[in-house]
Amino acid sequence: MFIKKLGLSLLLAVAFLSCEPEAFSPEDTTPFALKLPEGFPAPAIPEDNALTEARVALGKRLFYDPVLSSDSSISCQSCHRQELAFADDRPISPGVQGRLGFRNSPTLANVAYLSRINKDGGVTKLDLQAIVPIEDHAEMDFSILLAAERLNAMPTYEAAFAKAYGEHASPFTITRALGSFMRTMISGHSRYDIAQQGGAPLSAAEARGEMLFFSSRTQCSTCHSGFNFTQNQFLNNGLYLEYEDGGRHRVTLQEEDMGKFRVPTLRNISVTAPYMHDGSLADLRAVVQHYNQGGKGHANQDPRVKPLGLSEQEQSDLIAFLQTLTDTAFLTDEQFR
């Protein structure tokens, strides 16, 4: 069972994070103003972690600092690169000493809107997520309790935590600072959005692809809908007949969840290859071909995944449309550096 793989320090940290802290008394409470694209709702912000300039700045510093890994060799940014929409271009990102886990690094764009984090939904909120890669042997391989000790021994970090939370670094404040920064990673200014708002129209091929995407024939938009092009459901898309990684099953232990993973956002999809939970599909054409062929036929495969009979031209048109969902400004925005 998954719980047996948790180390003692991780269990202690989870217990610590589950406790309600005393009210914070930060030195700087200047609110951070999120810039929301047209049509985007305001994300829910936890009452115990109001978004402030100091917290976002601290979270950004931690995100890029390898101090959170056991040997100070990798940072969050090592696996989540801005030019790739805070994803990675390797099937599996190497961790400390080059160790490999078993899942592809997902985009962090618009994670502020997720109610369950990670591809299997095993983390219940964004402010807890960072403990997973920090403690994972194949990623940063560090006790978050020891990470807090390391940060508290650094005067500049001690001052930054006092400014943001009025507290020392702790599992609670480390994860919440990182959550604050990740909540600012909002992306919604693609060419598709511009066209929808009355700007430059899509090309003929892109427009044909858009019609296919939203058609009853492909049903793409029944899973990838809304402002973020996902309903955040956990579904089996028939990638395999047998899954080494059970996905949602690892969390629930229910057989009906075998092979189910979160339906990802399609925003910036053209820069987040390779695809699927294990990075096994190299490019968008391979993804479209997978769905065009109708999957492998796993018992839990969603019934909407079935042979589509798309021609080569139609597949190219669909890919052309997906490429319009890239937010180039997000990939270069200085506020995230």
UniProtKB/TrEMBL annotation:
Residues annotated to bind heme c 1: 76, 79-80
Cofactors: heme
Post-translational modifications: Binds 2 heme groups per subunit.
Residue ranges annotated for the Cytochrome c domain, each copy included: 54-162, 204-326
Keyword line: Heme, Iron, Metal-binding, Oxidoreductase, Periplasm, Signal
Signal peptide: 1-23
Cofactor remark from the record: Binds 2 heme groups.
UniProt binding sites for heme c 2: 220, 223-224
Compartments, record wording: Periplasm
Any Pfam family matching the protein: Cytochrom_C
Keyword Iron recorded: yes
SUPFAM superfamilies membership: Cytochrome c
One cellular component (GO) term of this entry: periplasmic space
Origin: domain of life: Bacteria
GO molecular function: cytochrome-c peroxidase activity; electron transfer activity; heme binding; metal ion binding
Protein's name according to its UniProt entry: C-type cytochrome
Organism (species): Phaeodactylibacter luteus
Organismal lineage: Bacteria, Pseudomonadati, Bacteroidota, Saprospiria, Saprospirales
